[in-house]
């Protein structure tokens, strides 16, 4: 176990972070430039969206790409300052086999963040760090204020577009990285955002 005082956070490495037992509470953290950053508990809408998307994409992968897996809240190490950064997306997909002792998601092809109004800046900061990973083909950001998403897809030359594709309402979401396609609204099943009035 690594004993870490709050005053020493600025130099924490990923190895130290993975062995750190937190602050003694149930608070979850990610590591940002050597400093643990607390992650607020998710709203119920966020939680429903996360579990629904994991189920839909997980079932799709089981049928179409059984070697690939969706992972909830995986640790991801961006290429920039990788020894001092461990970001935690809501979901990630990898097609690399699971091995004993893995603590970070190997070769993610798709990363998904769920955007809450209270963490918008931190979420987009994470998104831009994900673009440094050569295996990542798509990054999906789902809204919680309405039925909508923003999708970044790596282009043929390896670059990323200047701005994401926006998908809303009944529009079809296509994730080329995992061969998934469905109306965006399906991902929001069970949330108040799509519930029909009584």
Automatic annotation (TrEMBL):
InterPro entries per the UniProt record, alphabetical: Nuclease_put_TT1808 (IPR012296), Restrct_endonuc-II-like (IPR011335), Uma2 (IPR008538)
Domain named Putative restriction endonuclease: residues: 15-175
Keywords for the protein's UniProt record, in alphabetical order: Endonuclease, Hydrolase, Nuclease
GO MF assignments: endonuclease activity
Keyword Nuclease: yes
Keyword Nuclease: yes
Protein name in the entry: Uma2 family endonuclease
Organism: Azospirillum oryzae
Lineage of the organism: Bacteria, Pseudomonadati, Pseudomonadota, Alphaproteobacteria, Rhodospirillales
